Amino acid sequence: MAAKILVVDDEPQFERLILQRFRRQAREGKYEFLFAQNGVEALDVLARNTGIDMVLTDINMPKMDGLALIGQIREVYPLLKAVVVSAYGDMKNIRTAMNRGAFDFVTKPIEFSDLETTMEKTLREAEVLRQVEAAKELAEKNEKLQEIDQLKTHFFTNISHEFRTPLTVISGMAEQIGENPERWLGKGLAMIRRNTHNLLNLVNQILDLRKLEAGKMPLQLIQGNVLPLLYYLFESFHFLAESRDIKLHFLCSESKLVMDYDPEKLLRILTNLLGNAVKFTPEGGEVYYQVDNVADCLQIRIKDTGIGISEEQLPFIFERFFSGPELPSGPAGETEEHQPLFGGDRDPFRSPPAGGPASAGDKAKKRPAASNTGIGLALVKELINLMDGDIQVESRKGQGATFTVRLPIRREAPLVARGEDIPAFLRVEKMMSAAPIAPPAQGVVEASIHAELSELPSLLIIEDNPDVAEYLQACLEGRYQLAWARDGRQGISLALEQVPDLIISDVMMPEKDGYEVCETLKNDERSSHIPIVLLTAKADQGSRIEGLSVGADAYLEKPFDKQELFVRLEKLLELRAKLQERYRSMENLEAPGQEGASPEAQFILRLQDAVKVNMEDENFGILELCRAAGLSRTQLHRKVKALTGRSTSSFIRFIRLQRAKELLRSTDLNISQVAFEVGFKDPKYFSRTFQEEFGEAPTQTRR
Questions:
Q1: Which of 128, 349, 485, 659 could link 275 by a cystine bridge, Cβ 3.0 to 4.6 Å?
Q2: Strand 81-86 relative to strand 54-57: parallel, antiparallel, unpaired?
Q3: Fold exhibited by the domain 219-434
Q4: CA atoms within 13 A on the CB side of 622
Q5: Cβ contact 199:169 at 8 Å
């Protein structure tokens, strides 16, 4: 391909000279020359001709000289190389030309062999620069493609979570109905319908985005009073907000507002925005839903006192595949009211939040927000654009968010009759979407987690989806004493307070995700021994490895097989039983600080040392050991029971009896003296408990 060379010189004979000297090269397709008589004309030629490889320019020309032209070329075409060919070859002009950006300088009269050498060198340099730039552009494109690919991967991972969660309920409840139709038919069918609706709503959002992309989603406009529809939406959220102790305010400056609007699309927009406001506002917060006519625009402002959005994320929240702002995390173990029993509210909205968690030790790492697919807000933005409106958001992290929607007021669509402002299909569909789940029957869940009241092992379910939590309760009732925490932070608080025998935790949850739940509990002495099963739709290998790396004992994918869940839990309890056998005798335990010493072994040895130090004190009992361990009575009981199979009082007594056994074998103290030495004030009681523990009387041990 011929190299394009622009020659700029106001002397006509110079053009003829160039064509004559390089006619062979031009004929062979090596060079192609273009000509201009001054700098202005040269810039015009450059603008009209792409692919010029270099410029040969004189200095002294009318309108714009060569030095000014070089400066313009450097500014507008930074990759284009210019060579000055001029009779003004003094040092000052050469220095000025080089400073302006000239690649080389050839003086007149011209030695054409030198000029051709300079041209070849310049063209080689230009080609290298083009290759470098092309490589840079390719790298940038690859980086952008990788970024888009990562966003899409994250999007589809979250979509799979959204699909797997309702599918878990649907498939699980179908099985429960088959096994026990009398009990589960009514409630199970309601849960199946509700989760089928959630799946359908998610699919519809994806399809709506595709239609909007293709320009195939028409507006179905009607003309009527829009206020009944807007108030209807407020009412559909009112019960949900109340159930979460959130005050929902409806403010409207108009008594009637007739305009063109698409009811279905308007409800989809506002359902997303109001749903996010309610979902990400803590209990006791407030949400304001304000409607006004501002400059011939319907203005809807939704303001909440929730978690807010960080300043750096605000510009991106309406972008497709954007994973959304992260949820805040409190310190590990932070106290909050929790629901220890099944029941409570349900958040049906699975759209992305308008607003993820610190691990043990308050690490500053963050993970994507739960239930965030990157669809909802992108769809909201596209639908508002379709209506020729706009949406703005104001927010600061921790200080709530305000979304303002403005839609032009027009009156061109057909009028609807009074009472048809809210189409019937929307009344049914949207009320189904917004209706909260009724709590499970109280009788099913009245059993508390206290192990002292039952021999059933206790199990804590940490799951933000009440349908999944209720399905797990249906599977596990009668096998375990059950408790439920509806997010990661509540789960940590309840686990540390009650110290259950087992924990099942979802991964993608608000406040703190399952990985943080696992990491926090496994690094806390009060709960490090509790087996944790992570139950999640994040089924990829990386997620599984991350779960196991933070201490999860098992990892189960949604939708899960009920029998597999039973086996996993039973095997974990069997492992705990083996652990109890090891710690029950308190022999061959690793010393504290010893390499490879487990936290559980170190804990048992610390308790043992505390009892030994106070061995002669007959009043040293459970309360004193609680103070020495820094645990509550319940926490210490659960921890000791889980590790040794003994109650706290039995644990203290066993350490005393072990010491008594040593004294009987190694000293001449009589039995009463031994009893007093190890804190027993009644020698007869000492002899009886010694016989019960070791299967022989103290007198037999002495022999």
A1: 349
A2: parallel
A3: Heat Shock Protein 90 (3.30.565)
A4: 13
A5: no
